[in-house]
Amino acid sequence: MSSVHTLYGVAITDAIAKGDLAELKKLAAEAEAHVQQYGDVPTLLTHLKLEIAKAEARKP
Amino acid sequence: MDTSASALSPAPQEVPVRFRRMEDHHNLVPVHVVWEITLACNLKCQHCGSRAGRPRADELTTAEALDLVDQLAALGTREMTLIGGEAYLRRDWIDIVRRCRDHGMRTAIQTGARNLTDARLDQAVAAGLQGLGVSIDGLPDLHDRVRGVPGSYDQAISALRRAKVLGLDVSVNTQIGPETPAHLPDLMDRIIEAGATHWQIQLTVAMGNAVDNPDLLLQPYQLIDVMPLLARLYQEGVERGLLMIVGNNIGYFGPYERMWRGYGDESMHWTGCAAGQTTIGIEADGTIKGCPSLATSLYSAGHVRDMTVEDIWRHTERISFGRLRSVEEMWGYCRTCYYADACRAGCTWTSESLLGRRGNNPYCHHRVLDLAKHGLRERVVKVKEAPPESFAISEFALITEAIPGMEDAPPLPARDPEHVHIHPRERAAGGGTTPPRLEVCRGCDQYIWPHEETCPHCGSDVAAEAARHAEDTARRRALIEQAKRFLAGLQTAGME
């Protein structure tokens, strides 16, 4: 598979960036968007566990 | 030779129509045609290779033009670029667009966009036009000066915006001369804002009006600064939804080849000039060439009023030069280059227009970097004017000189042309051959011939570096799959 970009011709417009790097960046952006919208699950979990531990420590 | 291409390449609908598959090479399919449908033009570009302005005296009639489209469709053409001059100054251009679309060809125009009215755009969209590429060579002052018409930049940007609204694929072509690089970052911002998704970059070539204005030509040694800039903009563009397309005279095999030639697919690299192999160029009077930009005097292979396109395509010597040439016709630095048989001196148009003979191309990043290591650089000086004809070439002298301050660098070693690797090419029944495939050395990320055990560039153990790379790739792919599953799970949970 190869492509040719003839200099008097129009730019190819049905090509997209590919490869692991592009995919990793796309996935990282999606993950960041999720964190922005819903928050950081691991940090939330840490806080929940901390409060659970504190509450359990106060049990009679 | 295995011609069962389905096992080797994805199905056509999964890849851009311009991508060349194994069977295209074997069967000599003119995948992409670039057709100057008129030489009439309403700009006065100082670098115009075809010296466009007035229409040619004997441009094809409508019937001849439509018949030409039918002949190309029969040969398997999948993509058509209509150019000029200015394509829409031909009265029946809409009929030509419609006929191309009737055959299922991906169809676009490349334009300067002066007086590209809403009515013209609406008609073209109704006829099925899919893409609009606008030529923009810098910010307004530079663009208007180079294009010879005040206000042409504003019209170009306006056309991009209006075409985007109409749903066309919108792209920009930019020619690089000495003044252009400083404009590129701002120009990128502006074309992204105007809606462009693809940006083809190419060097201005010493043909026609550009010979009359040699100050518009980049000097070869300037690539040492221009290429890193382009690489930075390529990466920024990917992040911002603009894919930079490096034109056929941007190259070759330097440090950025694996990044941009295949847009991230490292198996795609420069495989040599495609003129007459998977590409056809047509002049408005029906002259057929292997590439639209080649000099008419040297590469006019025939005329559609005298012969069928198929006969010109399959049987004329001037169109088949690219299928038959070998490293033996190369000369100068390119003749002894490591990549000689894969590269064939890059873009034929660029090198032959410059030096009067194909096979040696100073506009090469690999070459510029190699020479610089040895304290050398190259520049070109015009020694002969170009005649007034369309696609006329002249001659430039190639001067190799010491880089100031690097006079003590180690000298360039003598390289034996007999040691250049020759890729065995087996001709398929259809008449074509498959270009060579190089691999990437994972020690230095440079392309190497597949037989190499020790990298000629960095000296690393090719197999050991490949194994390390395979481990890295497997880890990365596993992470990608994990991230996809995780994000898909989140999306599903969000919908419940």
From TrEMBL, chain A:
InterPro entries per UniProt: DUF1843
Pfam families assigned to the protein according to its UniProt record, in alphabetical order: DUF1843 (PF08898)
Domain DUF1843, chain residue ranges per copy: 6-57
Annotated protein name in UniProt: Uncharacterized protein DUF1843
Origin species: Nitrospirillum amazonense
UniProtKB/TrEMBL annotation, chain B:
Superkingdom assignment: Bacteria
Keywords from the UniProt entry: Iron, Iron-sulfur, Metal-binding, S-adenosyl-L-methionine
Gene3D superfamilies linked to this entry: Aldolase class I
Record bears the keyword Iron-sulfur: yes
Matching SUPFAM superfamilies: Radical SAM enzymes
PROSITE patterns, alphabetized: RADICAL_SAM
Cofactor(s) the protein requires to work: [4Fe-4S] cluster
Keyword Secreted among record annotations: no
A Pfam entry, by short name: Radical_SAM
InterPro entries the UniProt entry points to: 4Fe4S-binding_SPASM_dom, Aldolase_TIM, ChsH2_Znr, Elp3/MiaA/NifB-like_rSAM, Radical_SAM_PqqE_MftC-like, rSAM, rSAM_GDL-assoc, rSAM_sf
Domain Radical SAM core: 27-243
UniProt protein name: GDL motif peptide-associated radical SAM/SPASM maturase
Native source organism of the sequence: Nitrospirillum viridazoti CBAmc
